[in-house]
Design goal:
about 60% helix; alpha+beta; 10 helices; 4-stranded antiparallel beta sheet; elongated; about 270 residues
């Protein structure tokens, strides 16, 4: 009779986050007078907040409950993009906490209900300092994520340049004899190699790492760069180990505050409604 399903569907169209849409989907009619009055007070206060120009961005907030559950498991490691999603939630919660503590001065109504609700958001300043600016938009760790990671990556770039210079010199010598297919250094299985015409492959002592689709070219790792490539592979393994250590440390920090983050998520979802 109240067409509640249609009302709820209409309301969902105004939600800008997965959190809000999920919370709206769970709404049910209530006869709990205290709850109803609290909702009315919250709505009145938020309407006044909006009237005086108050804004808050809910878009992009997602349900992170599974990620928080994973972060609580000892030894578990969240992916960088998963941590980035959690950082977004924590940053947004910290942003709202400041608004709740310092509402716009032009508001004419009381802010008691919103302040009470927002008290469920903890102070995440220490956590955000520990996590912020370590993950790039593409999901890779920034060089500044740790001094050790920065050092390893510098060594990797130095080693790559040294190998490429050696192979470029080798290629020039091969080109003079017509053995090189192209004067281009390429990579096969994380090892730098050079393209050599199949009929001249015996002229190059080294390890063959496959052939072109046409069969006219083989990719050879010359003997003189094998040790350099071995060192590069070792450095890449060191990089992976350091990345894993950093992600493990970040996951552990999130796990320690998982309950508080979960509570903050609940507050943000309620606020959007």
């Amino acid at each position: 009779m109240l067409e509640f399903e249609q009302l709820r569907e209409l309301l969902q169209g105004y939600a800008t986050s997965d959190l809000g849409r999920s919370r709206v989907a769970g709404l049910q009619p209530s006869v709990d007078l205290d709850w109803i009055q609290k909702q009315q007070r919250l709505t009145s206060e938020i309407r006044e907040f909006r009237r005086v120009g108050g804004r808050f961005e809910f878009a992009g907030l997602i349900d992170v409950s599974k990620l928080l559950d994973k972060s609580r498991i000892e030894g578990a490691v969240l992916e960088a993009l998963e941590i980035r999603d959690l950082i977004t939630i924590v940053d947004r919660a910290a942003e709202w906490r400041q608004i709740a503590l310092n509402p716009p001065q032009r508001m004419k109504t009381d802010w008691a209900a919103v302040r009470e609700l927002s008290s469920g958001i903890a102070d995440f300043a220490d956590l955000t300092r520990a996590l912020r600016n370590k993950i790039l938009p593409d999901g890779t760790l920034d060089d500044k994520a740790s001094p050790q990671l920065a050092n390893i990556r510098r060594e990797i770039e130095k080693q790559r340049r040294a190998i490429q210079q050696s192979l470029q010199s080798f290629l020039r010598r091969l080109s003079e004899g017509g053995a090189a297919q192209d004067e281009v250094v390429t990579v096969r299985g994380e090892r730098f190699v050079i393209p050599v015409k199949t009929e001249h492959k015996r002229r190059v002592q080294g390890v063959v790492h496959g052939a072109s689709s046409s069969g006219q070219t083989v990719f050879v790792e010359p003997l003189e760069t094998i040790e350099q490539n071995n060192e590069l592979v070792r450095l890449l393994e060191d990089e992976l180990a350091e990345v894993h250590r950093i992600l493990l440390e970040m996951t552990s920090k999130i796990g320690e505050r998982a309950s508080e983050i979960s509570a903050a998520v609940e507050v943000l979802a309620e606020l959007e409604v």
